[in-house]
């Protein structure tokens, strides 16, 4: 059995019962070293295959090979395994290494980073939204710009993953320039770092100020659309319900 498990932000409180069950029943846990560390005692007594960043293919291949050998394997992903995570790579490897489909496989969903961040900001995602990663490690930057332009022109609320790193210092600024061509600099925005984890930080700001904010790879930036407004310490993007006068 091969399970690709979304553990959400990483703590038990935000894992589904199905995710907990898949982790507890697994003989082998496979994942990025930092994510395995989030499991705490859930990893006790398990065989662990952990690697650093940029070695995703290596560890997913190890997971598939262990499953082909008859082991019960769980590939650990933060957030949801089908959102910028390992579900796709695992299925591609199974397609190649197990074309007859002899290994039972499941994808166990989890709380995404954008869902976690939105919950802390209020209700910014109440209507159509787009999630765009600013990492150009696997996607060419010109393709990312085209996607940002399309989302901005369509007035989507936009959530930005991987907004800034030590090497990518201007990508966030450029993304904000593209968005600002279609919505004002005072458009409400929010930045959440370590959502639902120890060290959590939540800041309300505006599109015009986002490039000057302290933002890193552990942050999610959500920029509202033309209808988004701030009320107290919350962001609200109206869904379109009509409210009776006085209520």
How would you describe this structure to a colleague?
The protein is of the alpha/beta class. It folds into 2 domains: 2-108, Tetrapyrrole methylase, N-terminal domain (Cobalt-precorrin-4 Transmethylase, domain 1, 3-Layer(aba) Sandwich), CATH 3.40.1010.10; 113-236, 2-Layer Sandwich (Methyltransferase, Cobalt-precorrin-4 Transmethylase, Domain 2). The protein is 28% helix and 24% strand. The protein has 7 helices and 13 strands. It has helices spanning 17-25, 33-37, 56-68, 87-97, 113-121, 141-153, 171-180, and strands at residues 2-6, 28-32, 47-51, 73-77, 105-108, 122-123, 129-133, 157-161, 188-193, 201-206, 219-223, 229-231, 234-236. Strands 3-2-4-1-5 form a 5-stranded parallel beta sheet, with helices on both faces. A 5-stranded mixed beta sheet has the order 7-8-11-9-10, with helices on both faces. A 3-stranded mixed beta sheet has the order 6-13-12. A hairpin with a 2-residue loop joins strand 12 (229-231) and strand 13 (234-236). Helix 3 (56-68) crosses helix 4 (87-97). The N and C termini lie far apart (53 Å). The model has no long low-confidence stretch (mean pLDDT 96).
The first-level CATH class of the largest domain is given as Alpha Beta
Q: Given the structure, what is the number of helices?
A: 7
Q: What general outline do the C-alpha atoms trace?
A: elongated
Percent of residues in helical segments?
25-40%
Task: Give the CATH architecture of the largest domain.
Answer: 2-Layer Sandwich
* Category from helices, strands and their pairing: alpha/beta
Unreliable stretches, pLDDT < 50, 5 or more residues?
none
**Overall structural domain count:** 2
Name the average pLDDT.
96
Distance between the termini: 53 Å
CATH superfamily of the largest domain: Tetrapyrrole methylase, C-terminal domain
- Please tally the β strands and state the result: 13
Q: What is the gyration radius calculated from CA atoms?
A: 20 Å
């Amino acid at each position: 059995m091969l399970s690709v498990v979304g553990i959400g932000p990483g703590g038990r409180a935000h894992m589904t019962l199905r995710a907990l069950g898949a982790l507890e029943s697994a003989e082998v846990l496979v994942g990025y070293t930092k994510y395995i560390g989030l499991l705490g005692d859930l990893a006790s007594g398990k065989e662990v295959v952990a690697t650093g960043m940029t070695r995703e293919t290596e560890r997913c291949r190890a997971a598939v090979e262990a499953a082909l050998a008859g082991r019960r394997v769980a590939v650990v992903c933060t957030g949801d395994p089908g959102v910028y995570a390992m579900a796709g790579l695992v299925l591609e490897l199974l397609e190649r290494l197990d074309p007859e489909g002899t290994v039972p496989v499941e994808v166990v969903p989890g709380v995404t980073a954008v869902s976690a961040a939105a919950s802390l900001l209020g209700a910014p995602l109440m209507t159509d939204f787009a999630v765009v990663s600013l990492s150009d490690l696997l996607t060419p930057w010109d393709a990312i710009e085209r996607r940002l332009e399309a989302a901005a022109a369509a007035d989507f609320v936009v959530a930005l993953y991987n907004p800034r790193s030590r090497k990518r210092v201007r990508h966030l600024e450029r993304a904000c320039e593209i968005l600002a061509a279609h919505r004002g600099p005072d458009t409400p925005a929010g930045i959440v770092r370590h959502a639902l984890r120890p060290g959590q930080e939540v800041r309300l700001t505006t599109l015009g100020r986002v490039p000057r904010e302290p933002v890193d790879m552990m942050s999610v930036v959500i920029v509202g659309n033309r209808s988004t407004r701030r009320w107290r310490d919350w962001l609200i993007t109206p869904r379109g319900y009509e409210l009776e006068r006085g209520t």
